[in-house]
Amino acid sequence: SDDGESYSGLVNLGNTCYLNSQLQCAYHVPYLRKLILEAEDEVVEVEVEVEEEVDEEEERRDDDEGGECGSGDASAIGENCAAERPASCDEEQPDATDAPRKRTRIRKETRRETVPISQALRALQQSFGSLSRSTAGTTAVLCRALGINPYLQQDGQEFWKLFIPELDFPKMAELYSGHFVDYLREVVDDDEDCAGEEKKSDEDATAPRERIKNEPFLDLSIPVAEGGGSVESTLAEMFTQPELLRVSEGNGWRPSKGSPKVDAHKGSSLQLAGLPSLLQLHLKRFKYDWDSGETSKINDCCSFPRELDLSDIVEDASSGAEDDAIYDLQSIVIHKGEYGSGHYYSYVRPDVNNDRWYRFDDELVVEVAYEDVVADAFGGARRKRNRSRGNSSADGSGRSGVVRRRGLFRLIRSLFGFLRPVRIGGCNYGYGGRSSSAYQLQYTKRSDASKLMY
Q1: Rounded CA gap, 101 and 98, in Å?
Q2: Predicted TM-score of the model (pTM)
Q3: Cα separations (Å) of 9 from 153, 328, 343?
């Protein structure tokens, strides 16, 4: 790149583009990359139970020495004990020929043990190391460690959700882990004046009954609206617009067994404590048609911002710092093609403090403008005025044919990745053509930027 940085691609081993695109997004978060490369076996102290055989007579003698007779200097022990124990000729003496009786007892002790990192994490270290040492890294060792068939295509988002737990690396999982709250909350009409009744005071108001449940997530799945939409509006609908369950409409909520149904709000909410350092948004572009039994891709436009401000969506945003609910776009995973087939690649901004973007398409790495990212990632087509329409020659000079041939040449070149926009029928498509669109977005929390992007 122009700033002197060197970026490497990843070799596609057959159909491992879904893996390559996700790894590039993770690798270019410096803090996460450092965590993975420096992960090592951990030495921990553990308490274990140990069985041992003891002589009952010795154990009894040890117990006696621990009492009052055992106090004082060693020379006085025999005298004191003899004085306290009256002599008796009838006292039975142990038979020297009898074997001492033994019993098994359990004692606890602390030991130091080595806990090795997982095979998957060790293999990921090698893949990340290959990215830093060569022009094209490889995931061959990682695929073997995970038992991945490199010729079998997988869904990129589903793979990543299974991959993070498989690493068994809590420090990495914590960066992606968040939670939201699902709730059912009784509707209490204590803020409306009833006819002929006095409005209730805050002291007299009845607290609404509710049922809440924390739902953990590694990413948030956002439905893509047919006809177009935006990430901001969909998130607002998901977390600020609950469904009203009315008893009069045959719904309602029963707060407890045997109690009557009541009107209630059913919804979800986000809170600051549930926002992760790395927020991944999964754009649900595949839909299932129950009538035809087929699954198809929604490639309509779904816009998203470089700066995602959740202040109006998070319930307790006012209680935190200014940047606690603000995220910056760091990377995008693109899916090109239709359901069940296609190709994955990614756009990455290695430093969220500037606007330099790179396209990582397996081994090929190219710096691009953000406008090219948008053209490729939003989905659908951005209509622009076709300036060539007025250039046709009425005298048969063939000028319009030159324009058509140039358009065909541009289309052919785009298939090999040499051209940014593709012009088809007056529409501008991105690098991947008419079937490319963002499938996963990765944002970094601005308040954690100094740690994540150091």
Answers
A1: 9
A2: 0.76
A3: 19, 24, 15
